[in-house]
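Methods — Computational structure assignment.
A single polypeptide chain was analysed. Its primary sequence is given first, followed by the predicted tertiary structure written as structure tokens.
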Amino acid sequence: MKLLATKILIFLYLTTSTQFSQLYKLPIFFSHFIEHLQKDDSMGGIVDFVILHYNGHEKDADWETDQKLPFIKIEVAHIDQSYLPIVVFTIPQIIKEVHHELVTSFDENFIYFHYSDSIWQPPRQA
């Protein structure tokens, strides 16, 4: 739903504040093209219509309708000026001191042999 709303708002912004607003005049373009086809059978198609109206068109009987066609009058687009502050995020860093200390779990130099002799006795032969 949020994506659809975002797309609609972007479309509305583009079509109201840029030259995309000329696209709202497309129905006038097609209706005027159909009028020309009905009046003038020699018109080959839409390319001839575009060349006739967009290549230095002179005043004629339907001049007012011609001026309503899209991209005939290019209007200055309204651009909203906005200020977006630059936000810099600083990530806090924790400096830890790592101590590397060798831990000995077994060392034969620390064994008392007289004590181990009293605990462990190998089997004796009879």
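Note: The chain has a mean pLDDT of 79.
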